[in-house]
Each structure stands twice: as C-alpha cells, then as structure tokens.
Automatic annotation (TrEMBL):
PANTHER family in UniProt: CAAX AMINO TERMINAL PROTEASE FAMILY PROTEIN (PTHR36435:SF1), SLR1288 PROTEIN (PTHR36435)
The protein's name: Unannotated protein
Residues passing through the membrane, by range: 39-63, 83-104, 125-147, 167-187, 199-217, 223-241, 274-293
InterPro entries: CAAX_protease (IPR052710), Rce1/LyrA-like_dom (IPR003675)
UniProt organism field: freshwater metagenome
UniProt GO molecular function: endopeptidase activity
Length: 302
C-alpha cells in the first residue's frame, strides 16, 4: 500500500529518534557510575582489614607452634616458621580485599569495574605507566643518594623464609610478585583512593593514600625506601585517575616487585622470565575476574 498523502495535506508528526550515546574511544570499556563510597568507609576498611590480618597471624602462629612444639619460647610466641609467615601474608592480602568489598557493599552491591577493574586504551596506559615507573625510580635514586643508604635491597623475601627451600622461594615469589600487587592495588587504588577522592578530590586523596601506602610497608621494606614507596603509592593514584583503570597500576606494581624480588636473590638474566611470567599470571587473573563478572553496563564513564 502506498504511504503517499494527498497533495496539500501535511504529513503526520513523527517523533524524532533519541540521540545516540557518544562513541567511546577504542579500547575503553563502558562502566557504571562512580560508586558512592564515603571517606569513613575507606579508613574503616583499612582498620578492619589490618586488625583481621593481625588476628589471623596470631592464630596461624599458634597453630604452627602447636605442630612443632614451640608455641611459647621464653614467655613469648616463638618466631613463626616460613610457612606460617607466608600464610599470614596471604591472609593479610585477602583481609584487605575482603574489607574493601564488605564496606563497599554499604553503598550498594559493588561490581569489579567499581574498583577500577575495567579496560582502558592500551598504548596510552603503557605510556603513562612507564612515566609513573620512571618517576618512582628517579625519586628512589635521588632519595637513596640524599640519605646515604647503603643497603636498599628488599628484605621481605628473606623475612618470609624464601632462603629456606625452593618451595618457599617459589611461594614467596608468587606472593610478592603476583598476590601483593593485586591485593594492594584493589584496596588502595580501587577502593581507598576512590573513597577519599569523593571527599576532597584527586590530589588530597592521592597524597593521603600514598602516605598510608608507604607507612604500611614499614615492617617489610628497608627504612630508606618508605619515602619513595609513599611517592609510588601517590603516583599510582594519579595513574589510575589518568587511565580510569587499575590494570596499569597492577602491571607496574607487579613489574616493580618482580625486579625487586630478583634483586633480593642476586639474580641477573632470571629477571626476564620472572617479569614475563608475573605479568602473564596477573593478566590471566584479571581476565578471569572480568569473565566471571560479565560485561560492564553501557553507561557513562565514571
């Protein structure tokens, strides 16, 4: 049937089509609206996470001591075995992740992209990531020369018992190079920085997060490294703000830890396979998390 209308009669009114959502840049994944996380949630999660980790460490120490008969030595808890140290550090990382998720749920059901687990443009992320890493290395070199530190090697692997056996070495390597970057970036950049950012903006939130990030490493890193580590935490916040994703933060953090771990063992060429393997494992874990969560909603970028 013809849709033509008699000459002289106006065509019926047709509602215009709704405007199309602007196209996103290539490689950028659409995300949900920024979560409504409050500053008190960030500090509360930090406190609860470390208290839970401390309780877990004591329990693991008691259990480990019960098996080797050294629960108490000279009226004090005996030094825990490498296995207990490793497990306690794993528990600490899991407690940070759990605390972030629990307090994030106060504002509604969180999804992975709320914590920055979302895609971004690859080459800009690589570029800004390398700039962040280079700035950290430059600050570290300047600071070490300023304070005249003689030994700046990573002491955490030795404290965890990496020198006790090959199995312990592998476990500590996975913990330091893979689990720690994932957990710390998820908590400090994905949750804590985001909560503080909603309060005072990017720069105060980045400075505060960096200072706390440096402070929590006081027991596991050489004292000369605390200021550079605080700067590293600050710079990673800016990297997250610039790219909109914590994937670049995780990658730089994992790469830095891998090199530091290899240096602590006096390795040379072994750094290359360790670095490649670390980044591959981290990428696989992030991909599995995205796969399990499903596609992000097609809404405006946060």
């Amino acid at each position: 049937m013809s849709t033509a209308y008699p000459e002289g009669l106006p065509a019926p009114f047709v509602h215009p089509s709704p405007p199309q959502r602007p196209e996103l840049p290539d490689g950028v994944e659409p995300t949900s609206i920024a979560p409504d996380w409050r500053v008190w949630m960030g500090f509360s999660a930090l406190l609860v996470g470390f208290v839970a980790a401390a309780v877990g460490a004591v329990i693991l120490t008691l259990i480990g001591g019960a098996f080797d008969g050294s629960v108490v030595a000279s009226g004090k808890l005996a030094n825990p075995s490498p296995a207990v140290n490793i497990l306690a550090t794993v528990v600490q990382d899991l407690c940070l992740i759990g605390a972030a998720v629990i307090f994030a749920r106060i504002a509604g059901r969180p999804r992975p992209w709320d914590f920055g687990l979302r895609a971004t443009r690859f080459w800009p992320a690589v570029g800004w990531g390398l700039v962040t890493w280079a700035a950290f290395l430059a600050v570290t070199l300047a600071w070490v020369n300023l304070v005249g530190a003689e030994n700046t090697s990573e002491k955490l692997p030795t404290e965890l018992g990496a020198d006790k056996s090959r199995l312990a070495l592998v476990c500590v390597g996975i913990l330091v190079c893979v689990l720690a970057p994932l957990a710390e970036e998820f908590f400090f950049r994905g949750f804590f920085f985001t909560a503080l950012r909603s309060w005072k903006g990017i720069w105060p939130a980045a400075v505060t997060t960096g200072l706390i990030f440096g402070a929590i490493h006081a027991g596991s890193s050489n004292i000369a490294f605390l200021v550079p580590l605080a700067f590293f935490g600050f710079a990673l916040c800016l990297l997250y703000a610039k790219t909109g994703s914590i994937y670049p933060c995780i990658a730089i953090h994992a790469a830095n830890n891998s090199i530091a771990f290899c240096s602590s063992q006096g390795w040379g060429w072994q750094m290359v396979p360790v670095l490649i393997g670390t980044l591959a494992i981290v990428a696989l874990i992030c991909w599995l998390v995205r796969l399990a969560a499903g596609p992000a909603p097609a809404s405006a970028l946060s």
